[in-house]
Write a structure and sequence with these properties.
Two copies of one chain form a homodimer.
Chain A lengths: L17 E2 L4 H13 L1 H14 L5 E8 L4 E7 L13 H15 L5 E6 L6 H16 L3 E6 L7 E4 L5 E10 L2 E4 L7 E5 L16 E3 L11 H19 L10 E6 L8 H21 L8 E5 L8 E4 L10 H8 L9 E6 L5 E3 L4 E10 L2 E10 L15 E5 L16 H27 L7
Parallel strand pairs in A: 4-5, 4-9, 5-7, 9-10
Antiparallel strand pairs in A: 1-15, 2-3, 2-16, 6-7, 7-8, 11-14, 12-13, 12-14, 15-16, 16-17, 17-18
Chain lengths: ~450, ~450
C-alpha cells in the first residue's frame, strides 16, 4: 500500500494513452480475437464463476506490449480507489451490493481495517473513498485501526476530506469500535504481509476477504500457475496462442540473498527464461530484448523486485542490492522468489511519450473501472510500482464493461474491454487460489 | 406496449423537471426522510430480497405531487429501454448479469419474445435496445415472433438500426429459431394480456419472467395491496405516514360496463375514496381537488382507464365511454376494476410548464435508470399513458442509485434516489406477487 504518486499534473494535451505504432499490428490481433469471441468469453466466465466464486475485491496491474497483454500483479486488498472515475460510482455500488450478497448477505454495518502505521495520504484517500462507496451502497461504515491508538485519529486529506481511524478492541469473539458501533462485517484492506493478526482470528463476524488470502499465505507462483492454466483453457476456446495473454513463470525454490544461497539456481533459471522468451520473440519476429522480473513470491508493493536482461544481472549482486532483495514490506524476509517474463509497456501518453500502465479494479466478479499509472520519468521495462516511483493517475474515461463490435479493435472502448477480460482472468486465478487456501469465499476467517 | 411518443423535440431550455414551488415543502419532508434513513432503507431492502427474489425486470410509473410520491403502474414486461440514458449501459449490463445469475445461471443464448402484431417503431426500438444490451452482457440474442411469419421480418427503425424478427417453432419441448439458433433462455417481453401462449407452455427452456406473471394472471388490486403492506412496513421503520408513498385503493368486485352491472357499487366506492382523500387533504391542509382513477384490474397501456372527481363522473356513462371502459388491450373484456387514489403530477419542465412523469427501470433488484415522460399537451391529473398520449422522453441525467446526503434533499441526485426507493418498493410488491403466483422467480414456466 505504499503507492505513491507525485503531485505532478499531466499536461493538458494528455488524453488516452496510445500504443507505439510499431506494435499496433499484433495488438489488434489480440483485441480483434477477444472482441470477435466476446460471447464465448463471457459464457466461459459465467460458467467459471458458478464453480469458483470471485474474491470480494481485487486490482490487477497489466502490461501492454502490443504483441502481449498480461497481468503482472493481482492485489486482493486493493488500494487506489480514489483514482477511479467518479462517474462510475453507481457501477461500484451495484458491485458492492453483489459482493455483499455473495459473501455476507446479512451485513448492515461495515468496519474497514486498513494497513497499519500508514500516514500515506494517497493510501488514506483510497480508504476514505472505499468508506464513501460502502456508505453509498447503504452500509453504515467505520474505519478501524489495528494500531494501538487510544483515541480516534483524524487525518486531513488532500481532497479536503477528513478520515477518522477508530480504536477497535476485541470483546469476546467480536470486534467492537470505540464509539459503540458493532459491525456485522469486517472489510479487510490490509494484505497481512506481516502475518496473521491475532485480533482478527476466531471472531464471529464475517471477514471479507478472509484472512487466509493475506500475503502470509499466498504465493505469486501459485497465482500465476492458476493464471497460466486458465489462459490456456480460455485461449483454446478462442484459438489464440496463450502466450499473448500470459507471462511465463519459473520458481526457484528457497533462496537467501544475504547468505548467497540459491544464487546458482536463480542464475540458471533466469538464463532459461531469457532463452525461452528469445525463442518466442524469434518465432514471432519481435525485435525487442527479452527481460525477466524477479520478485518476492509473497508480498508486493515494489520492494524486493529486480529486472534482468542477462544472467550477469543476477550474479555478484553487491551488498546494497542483496539487502534490497532480502527484505519485503513489513520487514518480512524473502526466501522464495518468482521469476516472471518481463512484458514491455508500450502504451504511451501524449506528445511526451510518458509510459502508461493500466490498473483494473474489480468487486465481486464485476470490473468497475480503472486508471492508468502515467509515469513521467521511468522507462518501458522498469517496474512502475516500486518505492519512490512517482506516477500520475489517469482515470479511465470509460468502464471496461462494454465491447463495441462495430468500432475499431483499437478504439478506447474495445481496448478497455480487453483489459477487463485479462483482468478477470487474473481475478479467476485468484478465485482458484481462494478455493485452494480457504475452500470458499464466504466462510468466516 | 402501445407507448407512443411524438417526434416533438423539447425546447433547448428544457432541463430537469421541477416541482411547482407550492409543493416543495412537503416533498422535501418526504425526501429528507428517505435520505436521512437511507441506511435503514437499504438494509431493509437487502433483507427483503433475501426472502423474496426480485422479478427479472420491471418498469414503474411514478407520480409526484410533492406531498405524495407513489407508483401508479408496475410493468413486468417493460418497454421503453430505448429511452434510457446510454451512459448507464454498463449499469444495465451488470444488472442483466445479476438477473441471469439468479434466474437462469446456465444461460448462453437468449431469445426475446416481444408483443404480437406490433409495428410500433417506438416499441421495436425498445426491443432492439434490449437485444443490444443482452449482447453487450455477453449473450447471443435473437428476437422471435409469436406471429405466423414465414420468414424473418426486417424493420428499419427511426434510430437507423434494423430489427429482425425471426420465425420460431416448437420442436418437442423446445423453442427453436429459423436460423438454427437454439436459445437456452426465453426472455419474455410480451405481457400476455390475451392469455397464455400455447407455444410457451411446458417447454424445457427457462422463460423469464415466467408466463405466470402475464396479465392473464395478475391483478392490480393484488399488486397494490402488497405495495400498501410494504409501504406500511417500511414507513414504520422510518417514522413516516405511509400515505405519502402509497395510493389508496378499492376493489369493486365484478363489473360489466356494457350491461351496466356493478355501476352502483362503483359509484359508492368512488364516493368513499373521494371522501377518504378529502379527509386526508383536510388534515394536511392540501387545497387540491381529490380525484380517483378507475382502471382495468388486469392489463395496462391506458385502455380502460378513466378519471373521476365526483361520483357523477361514473354514473350514466354514455355508450362510447362504456365501450371504451369495457375493452382492454387485445380485446380482453374488463370485468373487474381497480379504484385508485389519483396522484397529481406537479413536476414541470422548463418555462412552458410541461408536465413530467418519471418512469423507472429495474433489472433484478437494481435500478438501472429511467426517464421522464414529458407531456406537452395534457393536464396534471390526466393519465399520460393513454392511447394517443404523446410524450417526449427525457432520459434521467443521473442513475437513481446514489443518495447525496450532503446535498439538498431537492437536488436531482437525491430526488432520483427517492424515486428509486419508491420504485423498488413497487418492485418488491411485484416480487411478492411473483411468489404468490408462481412460488419463485427461477422456475421454468
Amino acid at each position: 500500500m505504499t503507492d505513491k504518486h507525485s503531485a505532478l499534473q499531466l499536461d493538458d494535451d494528455a488524453q488516452t494513452p496510445e500504443l507505439a505504432a510499431t506494435y499496433c499490428g499484433p495488438l489488434l490481433m489480440i483485441e480483434s480475437h477477444i472482441i470477435d469471441n466476446r460471447r464465448q468469453i463471457e459464457a466461459w466466465f459465467r460458467e467459471q464463476w458458478r464453480h469458483t466464486p470471485a474474491p470480494f475485491y481485487a486490482s490487477v496491474d497489466l502490461r501492454n506490449a502490443g504483441y502481449k497483454l498480461g497481468p503482472v500483479d493481482t492485489n486482493l486488498f486493493p488500494a487506489g480507489f480514489n483514482n477511479l472515475n467518479h462517474s462510475f460510482d453507481p457501477l461500484v455500488v451495484h458491485a458492492i451490493q453483489s459482493a455483499v450478497e455473495h459473501a455476507c448477505p446479512e451485513a448492515r454495518g461495515m468496519l474497514i481495517i486498513p494497513e497499519r502505521h500508514t500516514r500515506n495520504r494517497y493510501y488514506l484517500e483510497s480508504v476514505a473513498t472505499m468508506a464513501e462507496l460502502f456508505e453509498m451502497a447503504g452500509f453504515e461504515t467505520r474505519i478501524g485501526s489495528l494500531d494501538e491508538i487510544g483515541e480516534p485519529q483524524h487525518f486531513e486529506l488532500p481532497s479536503g476530506r477528513t478520515l477518522v481511524q477508530h480504536p477497535i478492541c476485541r470483546v469476546g469473539r467480536r470486534i467492537e469500535v470505540d464509539d459503540g458501533f458493532s459491525p456485522c462485517t469486517i472489510v479487510l484492506n490490509n494484505d497481512l504481509s506481516g502475518g496473521r493478526e491475532e485480533l482478527l482470528e476466531d471472531i464471529e463476524q464475517t471477514v471479507v476477504p478472509p484472512t487466509g488470502l493475506g500475503w502470509w499465505n499466498r504465493s505469486k507462483f501459485n497465482h500465476f500457475s492458476h493464471y497460466q492454466a486458465l489462459a490456456r483453457e480460455l485461449c483454446e476456446r478462442i484459438d489464440l496462442d496463450p502466450w499473448h495473454l500470459s507471462p511465463m513463470i519459473l520458481d526457484c525454490g528457497q533462496i537467501d540473498f544475504m547468505k548467497r544461497e540459491g544464487e546458482a539456481c536463480l542464475e540458471r533459471k533466469v538464463g532459461e527464461m531469457l532463452d525461452a522468451i528469445q525463442a518466442k520473440y524469434d518465432a514471432l519476429e519481435i525485435k525487442e530484448k527479452p527481460f525477466v522480473v524477479i520478485k518476492a513470491d509473497a508480498g508486493t508493493y515494489g520492494m524486493g523486485v529486480m529486472m534482468a536482461q542477462s544472467t550477469e544481472d543476477v550474479v555478484g549482486l553487491n551488498r546494497k542490492q542483496r539487502t534490497r532483495m532480502a527484505a519485503s514490506k513489513d520487514g518480512r524476509g524473502i526466501n522464495r522468489v518468482l521469476i516472471q517474463e518481463g512484458i514491455y509497456s508500450f502504451e504511451q501518453l501524449g506528445s511526451n511519450g510518458h509510459v502508461a500502465e493500466p490498473v483494473l479494479y474489480m468487486i465481486d466478479r464485476h470490473v468497475v473501472g480503472g486508471f492508468y499509472r502515467v509515469h513521467t520519468k521511468k522507462g518501458q521495462s522498469e517496474n512502475l510500482n516500486s518505492p519512490g516511483a512517482e506516477f500520475v493517475p489517469l482515470p479511465f474515461t470509460q468502464p471496461c464493461v462494454l465491447p463495441a463490435p462495430d468500432a475499431s479493435p483499437d478504439s478506447d472502448q474495445n481496448r478497455l474491454y480487453c483489459y477487463g477480460v485479462v483482468a478477470r482472468l487474473a481475478l479467476l486465478a485468484a478465485a482458484r487460489e481462494q478455493q485452494d487456501l480457504i475452500g470458499g469465499p464466504s466462510e468466516p476467517a
